[in-house]
C-alpha cells in the first residue's frame, strides 16, 4: 500500500478550502480525478522537483 503525502487530519483541514466541482460541460474530455489525488500530485512535484 502506498503512503499518502496528505494524511487524514491534514486533509480534514484542507478539504473545506477547495471550491466545489463545476457542473459537467458536456461529453468528452478526461474524467475528473479526486481533489486529494491532485493535491498530492502537486506536492510530489514540489517536493521532488520532477518535471
From TrEMBL:
Insertion element IS402-like domain span: 7-51
Pfam families registered for this protein in UniProt: DUF4096 (PF13340)
InterPro entries noted in UniProt: IS402-like_dom
Name of the protein in its database record: Putative transposase
Source species: Kocuria rhizophila (strain ATCC 9341 / DSM 348 / NBRC 103217 / DC2201)
Amino acid at each position: 500500500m502506498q503512503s499518502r503525502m496528505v494524511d487524514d487530519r491534514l486533509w480534514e483541514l484542507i478539504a473545506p478550502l477547495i471550491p466545489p466541482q463545476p457542473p459537467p460541460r458536456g461529453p468528452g474530455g478526461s474524467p475528473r480525478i479526486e481533489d486529494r489525488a491532485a493535491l498530492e500530485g502537486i506536492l510530489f512535484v514540489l517536493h521532488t522537483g520532477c518535471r
